[in-house]
Amino acid sequence: MNTWFANLSVTRKLALGFGLVLALTLALAWTAWSGLGSVIQRSSWMSEITQLNATLTNLRIARLQFMLAKGDAPSTERLLTNLDIYLQQQKKLLGTFTNPVNVKLLQEQDRYNQDYQRSLAGMRAAYAVAAKVRDQVAVEDQQLSELLATMRRSIEQLPEYDANRFPQLQALTATHGELLRLRYLLERYDSAPMPKSNRRCPSVSPWPVPAWIPWSRFLVAPSKKPYAVSRRPWRSSSRPCRRSRAPRPISPAPVRK
């Protein structure tokens, strides 16, 4: 080997040296380029995963806003928009990765996403039903308030000497107080629907109103005729008193002689 190398000319020796250096340089360049391409690809995958995590975070924020807003239209639209962005990003990653381990994890995540969509649809339906019931309760509460106001005006039109006026006012005041208490409990239950707050909302009022009160009488305004009829016994009974209070003739005092 040494003899063969010694017999070569200087030109060939230089060419052989430069060729060997060039081959080593090309090998190093190819290795570095391959490593750089792998790093770039890994960085791209990491950026895609980071974007997927960001879309998932936005989806969670939109879901919390949806729950705080009680499922109104703007929060629902925002939630659906973020959900579509997240699902598109997840499908993009599912078509990008080729490693069987990563593909298996992405497929499992896709099954979780389907379960999440079903749960979210159920929650949206529940919020829609709750909003409908809330509107119905508001309408009935308004009707009940108007009925109580009509009843109060009807009772206030009764004469002050009526024996049933004060008990009816007292019963109406108790009913109005119970209505205010029920409103407060409903607001607490609506803000925090927990079993503890549910037990505090009675379905039947714990303060029973006397049954002898003629409630049908208060549904319409009383006419003046019953009032006039009720005044007749008072007038007839007051006539003897007036006669008894009539001035009597004063007899002259006896004159002392």
From TrEMBL:
Chain segments carrying region Disordered: 225-257
Source organism superkingdom: Bacteria
Ranges for domain HBM: 33-239
Protein name: Methyl-accepting chemotaxis sensory transducer
